[in-house]
Every structure is written in C-alpha cells, then in structure tokens.
Design goal:
This protein has about 375 residues and is an alpha/beta fold. It has eleven helices and ten strands. The strands form two sheets. It has a seven-stranded mixed β-sheet with strand order 1-7-6-5-4-2-3, with helices on both faces. It has a three-stranded antiparallel β-sheet with strand order 8-9-10.
Length: about 375
C-alpha cells in the first residue's frame, strides 16, 4: 500500500463539481483583480474567525510583513518569536529591518512563555508567537506579558485555520496562509490579515495594492500583495467544510495518539480538542527518526520533517546567531517526524501507517 502525505487529487475530486460551476460564474463576471469575490471571502473568513475584518493578501509572508509595517516596526526594533517555524516567520521580521529574537519552546513545540520576559530589552516591540501545527500558544500569559511591557502581539496562525481560539485568543491581529497544504488551502499562494484594528485594516488594504488610497493616489511606497479573486471563489467554497475537515483531522490525531503513546521510543503530545491538527508530529527518540522514516518509506508511507533545519541554523541566519543555544529547538529538530494527517486519509491507510510504526519498534 502507498500512503501519500497529502493527496490533492482526492480533495479536487470532492470539490470538482462545485469548483467548476463557480469557475464558470467567475469567468462570466470578468473581474480578475480584487473585486466582489475577494470582498465576499474576506467577509466570510473574518466572521468565521470571530473578527471584524479580513484582508486577503498574496502569501502568509506578505501578511506577516504587512502587519509589522502597519505597526511601524522597522530598523532597530526586536521581535520575539521562535526558530522552529517556517522561515517565513523570521523573514517577515527581517524584511522590515527588525531583528528576530528567538525564544526556546515547550514540549508541545510552542513558544515557552516562561522564557519570554528574559528576552525583552529596550528594543523589543513585538511578541510573535506561532501556533505551530495547529496548536494554540498560551495567549493568556503572552498577552499579560505584552501588557506589562507595553508590547504588541502579532499571532502567526498560518497553520491554525479552524483551531478553537474562542476564549483563548480573539483580540490580537493574526496572520493566515492559504498555501495549498494548509487546513484551508488555495490552488496556489494566498494569505489574510485578520484583525479588529481599523488602522491595520486600512494599511493592509493600501499596502497590498501599491500603497493606494483611491485609484492612482499612491500615499505610501508599498507593493503588490493582492490575493487572486479566483482563489477566493474556491476558498469560500472550502470554508463551508472547514469545521468538518478539522473534526476528521482530530479523529486521525486521536487514533495516532491512542495507538502510539505507549510505544517506547516515541513521544506524542496529549490530544488537544482546541488544536486544528494541521500537522501531526511525533518525536522519535534515541536517534532513530531517520531509521523510522526510511522504514516507512520502504513500506510506501510518505512522511516529512517540519522543519529539518531550525531558522537560526539556516545559511541566511547562521552567522548572525552562531552562538545561540536553544535546548529544546535544537534537540527536537533531530527527533520530529510528521505523519500523514489530512481529511481524505482513509481509515485503512491510517491503520497501515500505525501498524508499520508499531512493527518498527517491535523488532
């Protein structure tokens, strides 16, 4: 049996009729840049997230960068974040001229809020937690720290579509990505600023569109970070199924946990009902991660590592952070393994993956 990490063909088959009908209507309208489809999706996504505004943009990176610029973050400023995220998180900080300050993480891969205060200096302006793998950071404590020191909080929720933020985190501006692999993915690149702040909304709407306030009235030096309207047409369709798909991801995650938590040599986090399970990540101990991955590949099971190289060890950052030690980040990067976990994974495929993991540790 072959088990893909994710299979977009299955997703397309599920949505094909709705997609094709919607594409035909879209083409007949003949509005191919911004317009009503973008506005409609923005309205629906903001409502889904429990916010006033959503502003569609070209990528998750462009969203993060724009939010920082909207808050006047720039040269000389410091932003506290994590190094075990996708590099886009830190690139957004670097792109505005600020400096990423990397905090170590907890056992659940999220920023260790207990270590944030020690990193705060007179240059610190923002705390940027990452809701990695769909799991929500401890925003109550993070927000309390930010309030104490007068800092801005920007949440990287690029992997957390469908996570249950209600009562946990529904006040800070959030960044979402619609990269195809996300829980709510486009057929290409995309992202959205989600905010209750009118100033952030207005800045983002202008910055994504050449810095215009009114047509051909360019008030700020900006960029073209517009979200394609065709993406919005299809995202609006998929949004209606997001909760259902999150429930399926949670069922898969719960099964993985139940079947692997007692295996010696593996560490799995407890089931979290608020987690959107964008990815299901285990830790493989005793230096056996690559052996397990090879074993699963030989059995036809595709796995990935998110991410094989932490940001502070990437060539573009290595010299700048050559003396930085992050105990958990550095250790976990040698242990983490992402298993197939998406709504169209079949039950027999899930059972096959689990069986081969158990067989590996039984030998």
């Amino acid at each position: 049996m072959n088990v893909s990490f994710v299979d977009f063909k299955r997703e397309w088959k599920f949505f094909e009729k709705k997609f094709l009908l919607a594409f035909k209507k879209f083409g007949q309208k003949g509005i191919y840049v911004l317009g009503p489809e973008v506005e409609s999706f923005e309205k629906d996504f903001a409502k889904y997230c429990g916010y006033k505004y959503a502003i569609g943009m070209s990528t998750g990176l462009s969203v993060l960068e724009t939010i920082l610029r909207a808050n006047r973050i720039g040269v000389g400023d410091e932003v506290i974040t994590v190094a075990n995220s996708a590099v886009a998180t830190s690139l957004a900080i670097s792109n505005v001229g600020a400096k990423p300050i990397f905090c170590d993480i907890r056992e659940d891969f999220l920023i260790d809020q207990e270590k944030i205060e020690k990193l705060i200096t007179g240059k610190t302006k923002v705390i940027l937690p990452v809701h990695l793998f769909g799991r929500i950071c401890d925003m109550k404590k993070i927000n309390a720290i930010a309030k104490k020191y007068g800092l801005i909080v920007v949440e990287d929720a690029c992997q957390a579509h469908g996570a249950n933020f209600v009562g946990v985190s529904a006040i800070n501006t959030k960044a979402f990505s619609f990269y195809p692999t996300k829980n709510l993915g486009a057929i290409g690149e995309g992202g959205a600023v989600v905010t209750n702040d009118e100033k952030v909304r207005d800045f983002a709407m202008s910055y994504r569109n050449y810095g215009q306030y009114g047509r051909y009235n360019h008030v700020i030096k900006a960029s073209n970070y517009r979200l394609e309207p065709l993406h919005c047409v299809l995202l609006d369709i998929k949004l209606k199924y997001l909760n259902k798909f999150i429930q399926k991801r949670q069922v898969i995650a719960k099964k993985y946990i139940e079947e692997t938590e007692k295996i010696k040599g593996i560490i799995v986090n407890d089931f979290d009902k608020n987690c959107a399970y964008h990815l299901f990540v285990i830790r493989v101990l005793d230096g056996k991660r690559d052996e397990l991955r090879k074993h699963l590949k030989e059995k036809g099971v595709e796995t990935l590592v998110h991410y094989p190289t932490a940001i502070h060890h990437q060539p573009c950052y290595r010299e700048e952070y050559k003396n930085l030690k992050l105990a958990n980040v550095d250790r976990f990067q040698e242990e983490i393994l992402s298993l197939p976990c998406y709504p169209f994974l079949e039950n027999q495929e899930l059972a096959y993956v689990i069986k081969n993991i158990r067989n590996f540790f039984a030998t």
